[in-house]
Structure formats: structure tokens, C-alpha cells
Amino acid sequence: MQKQLTLLLMDPPYESETTTTAFRIISEAQKKGIKVSVFAYEGAVSLTVATQKPHANAPKGCADVKVQNHPTTKAWVEGLLAQGQLEWTYCGLCADERGSEGNMVAGAKRGTPGDFVKAAAASTNVLVIPTR
Predict the structure, then answer these.
(1) 120: number of CA atoms within 13 Å, CB side?
(2) CA 20 to 30 Å from 106, out of 15, 73, 76, 88?
(3) Would you give the distance in Å from CA 88 to the centre of its chain?
(4) In whole angstroms, how far apart are CA 117 and each of 65, 89, 111, 122?
(5) Strand 125-129 and strand 108-111: pairing?
(6) pLDDT, tens digit, for every residue of 22-58?
(7) Can you tell me whether residue 106 is helix, strand or coil?
(8) Contact 63, 56 (CB under 8 A)
(9) Residue 50 CB: number of other CB atoms within 10 A?
(10) What's the distance, Cα to Cα, between the start and end of the chain in Å?
(11) What is the pTM of this model?
């Protein structure tokens, strides 16, 4: 039986280091052949908003977007999805509240908290990464 890890993410992009940590855990699990299910809830639905844009960092002396090479969370998620063995579900109600429904990267699918419960029940382990 294939191992499966389910993560519940709640932090919006760039608000804490937990998102980067979650991305690293997901990537490592994929490398080990573990199927990963992510449920993005509350602010985490914004991790996959397709219209995110990189920016320069003028306050730190970098006015060139290409030089700054600022990553977007949508690009990180797209990279993880491209590695395979990842199902990314976002809370549709949360996306509706934030006006982001219909503006998600390819591969992210709309769902409900019930989808998290189903994934958790089918998983070897579950990791909940809450907001502060």
C-alpha cells in the first residue's frame, strides 16, 4: 500500500515561514514516492492565485524584477504539481470570500472541508499547519 501524507495549510502567502516549510515537506515526501494531498484553507487559498507577479525590491536596492528573481507561491505550487503524486485542493468557500475563485493555477481543484476529511482518513499521516 502506498504511503499518503495529507497537509492542511492555513497561512496566506508570505505571512510566515510555515508555508516554505510545508513546500519543503511536500517536495521531500514526493521524492520518497509518498502521495501527498494538500487542503488549502482560509488564507492559504491564495497560494495558488494565478495572477501573482514577481516584483523588484527597491527598498533593498534592487529595482529590477529579473535580478531580484522573487519567487511567487503560485510558481512553487506549480513546480510541486509538476513533480507528480500531489493533489492540491483549495477551500471553495474560502476562495469565494477572497474573490479568487476561477483564478487558480492549473491542477488546483476546488473542494470543501469534507475533501480534507476524506484525504485524512485515507492517509498514513496528517499534518495540520495552522495560523498563529
Answers:
(1) 11
(2) 15
(3) 7
(4) 40, 12, 11, 9
(5) unpaired
(6) 999 999 999 999 999 999 999 999 999 999 987 666 6
(7) coil
(8) yes
(9) 14
(10) 35
(11) 0.89
